[in-house]
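Schema walkthrough. Field components (list of strings):
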Amino acid sequence: DIVMTQSPDSLAVSLGERATINCKSSQSIFHSSNNKNYLAWYQQKPGQPPKLLIYWASTRESGVPDRFSGSGSGADFTLTISSLQAEDVAVYYCQQYYSTPSLTFGGGTKVEI
Amino acid sequence: EVQLVQSGAEVKQPGESLKISCRVSGYIFTDYYIGWVRQMPGKGLEWMGSIYPGDSDTRYSPSFQGQVTISVDKSIGTAYLHWSSLKASDTAVYYCARSPGAHYGDWFGPWGQGTLVTVSS
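Field assembly_structure (string):
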């Protein structure tokens, strides 16, 4: 299985400041056949199900605010919240979908104010 | 609007069987894979398996193969997750979630609200 490692485990960011979450895969999840990185990001607020934010490493899901952006390639990826809002307090997960049969998630990063 | 609505919380004893459900609406049920994801108390997300309602093609995570059964009832647009003999370690919230198309190895969205399963003697 591909292991997804997120860092940090948690971070505290002031309102309006930038939050950066890292996700590293144990092997490359870039597919040269379509030039795509097989990585998604999710947001999970307390007591709620996860919500899809980004797929293909950098494509924002419809309706997701543009302060959320994804970047990276190969085995190193970043989710950036450009200007943290109070409603962004949540746990964020990355997920690889390159390697089947197992789809794997990172351990999560808790974002607090 | 695409919606996935899961069955309510369950409290069971070890050794009992259980089937939880995920009823979908707002899209053609048979055109998209549905996955199940476990979240143990205070922990992260684990993919358990996915099913394509169109032909019931089912893929399981090796970690969950033989431990659970995923099925669908196309006539009522519902996916199921079934245990034949629960263990205390099955205590968790279980989510269903739709994949973006007819390929199981993709991302998930939208998600059901989750079903809390508590197994305790």
